[in-house]
Automatic annotation (TrEMBL):
Domain Response regulatory: residue ranges: 8-124
Modified residues (4-aspartylphosphate): 59
The organism of origin for this protein: Saccharibacillus endophyticus
Protein's UniProt name: DNA-binding response regulator
Leader sequence segment: none
Keyword line: DNA-binding, Phosphoprotein, Transcription, Transcription regulation
Residue stretches making up the HTH luxR-type domain: 148-213
Gene3D superfamilies associated with the record: 3.40.50.2300
CDD domains found in the cross-reference section: LuxR_C_like, REC_NarL-like
InterPro entries: CheY-like_superfamily (IPR011006), NreC/VraR/RcsB-like_REC (IPR058245), Sig_transdc_resp-reg_C-effctor (IPR016032), Sig_transdc_resp-reg_receiver (IPR001789), Tscrpt_reg_LuxR_C (IPR000792), WalR-like (IPR039420)
Length: 216
């Protein structure tokens, strides 16, 4: 189905030949009009305010304001605009921040001309497009989240030993005899491990130890 109105597009890329090539290709597409070309992030933000385009094709790595900050600023001033990242970079330190900044779609510059045009039309319809490699990286990130750090990971080796004896129901004096240390030292370790495990007393510490397999 043909869109009744022209989709206005702003190009933001610090490589002139890239802009010229994109403009030439997109101008041949039905229903798409390139209304401006910016050579950097600052200029892109200004031109977005000036033209209020439907879509901004945004490069990421540029001198001065990069594509991440430019995306944030464009969307602050033109909230109805859709920013489509078009970049050569696939590393996490750029991809995730720009998506968090509000980028609607993420394409690589290896994408074919018709794929870029289709992504522009999809954006206007409210449909995001992620290049296959980008989608795969995002799936991997959310499929295997990093494990949460356990409270007992902060215990020292000695505190872990004391915790095991606490879980066995031994008194401070019995623990001192087992470890051949002073009772004041035992009390010091007990106080520390209760704080680190965020429990109030020895009984709660013992329950924590059993629940986490630390009472052997």
């Amino acid at each position: 189905m043909e869109l009744e109105q022209q989709i206005t597009v702003l190009l933001v890329d610090d490589h002139e030949m890239v802009r010229i090539g994109l403009a030439a290709v997109l101008d041949t597409e039905d229903g798409i009009e390139v209304v401006g070309e910016a050579s950097g992030g600052e200029e892109g933000v200004r031109m977005a305010q000036q033209y209020n385009p439907d879509v901004v094709l945004m490069d990421l790595v540029m001198d001065g304001m990069d594509g991440i900050e430019a995306t944030r600023e464009v969307l602050k001033n033109c909230p109805d605009c859709k920013v489509i990242v078009l970049t050569s970079y696939l590393d996490d330190e750029k991809m995730y921040p720009v998506i968090e900044a509000g980028a609607f779609s993420y394409l690589l510059k290896t994408s074919r001309a018709n794929e870029v045009a289709d992504a522009i039309r999809a954006a206007v319809r409210g449909q995001s497009v992620l290049e296959s490699q980008v989608a795969a990286k995002m799936m991997d990130r959310f499929r295997t989240p990093p494990p949460a750090r356990a409270l007992h990971d902060d215990l020292t080796d000695r505190e872990m030993e004391v915790l095991r004896y606490v879980a066995q129901g031994k008194s401070n004096q019995e623990i001192a005899d087992e470890l051949v240390i002073g009772i004041k030292t035992v009390k010091f370790h007990v106080t520390n491990l209760l704080s680190k495990l965020e429990v109030e007393d020895r009984t709660q510490a013992a329950i924590y130890a059993y629940k986490n397999g630390l009472a052997q």
